[in-house]
Amino acid sequence: MKEYCLKYGVNIRWYIMTSIENNAETIEFFRKNNYFQYGEENIKFFIQTELPMLSENGKILLETKSKIRKAADGHGGIFKTMLNSGVIKDMQEKNIKWVYIGAVDNILSKMVDSLLVGLTIDKKVLAGGKSLIKSCPEEKVGVFCKRNGKPSVVEYTEISKEMSEERNEKGELKFSESHVLCNIFSIESIIQMGVANFKYHVAHKKSNYIDENGILIKPEKPNAYKFENFLFDSFERLENIVILRVKREDEFAPIKNAEGVDSPETASKLYIDFKNKKQKQD
Predict the structure, then answer these.
(1) Residue 182: closest CA among 238, 249, 252
(2) pTM for the whole thing?
(3) Which tens digit of pLDDT belongs to each residue from 88-101?
């Protein structure tokens, strides 16, 4: 982001959402690295909220004998968290009008994009997103669609095999516009979403817990359910959004797995390839 600050002659405020588990560690990491020369005054941390986890038979799990086991409430919880933590107030005081929300696990995420901002303003909508063509039916990404006439996204865990493989008359995937969590929202829309209630999506996860005898159980396979809000469910509350298709090699280097596909190794290679290409272009 530093290059964009220099390019546009402004200090771009950076808001970082952490979890209860990693907040102190994240802040200390930034401090030890001198905030990566970005300026402590330009960075604000805030903590994501959590929801209780349930066992497979519907009982609340315990982390200790006196503490309920909780998990982060999904990236869709960011709106309420921003509103309740004072982040929106801070943005309003600094006269911020548009906010980019992206995932920390995409190291090619382009956090400042004048084209996306311009398109969103030009089309007179309150939010916009980036898409890239889905690589194959099995790729673990959500896809943009229309649901009941409103913009929406179907998450990869919830799309049917038939729907993911459906093709148009040209032989292309019908649902091919991937949502990769690169979105822009107006302050107005964030406030609107901050007071709204979204549906919960259920994820089957592996989680340690304390049993009825006070013994710590460490399962070897998924044993619990966590509940999440998804950011893209906010789209259905808007009349329309802008979708800008971008090149995968320029803006998508995800880290989802420890090794293999979408791992630190593959993301590093994509990042190096992108930097080399950019240097040649410059």
Answers:
(1) 252
(2) 0.90
(3) 999 999 999 999 99
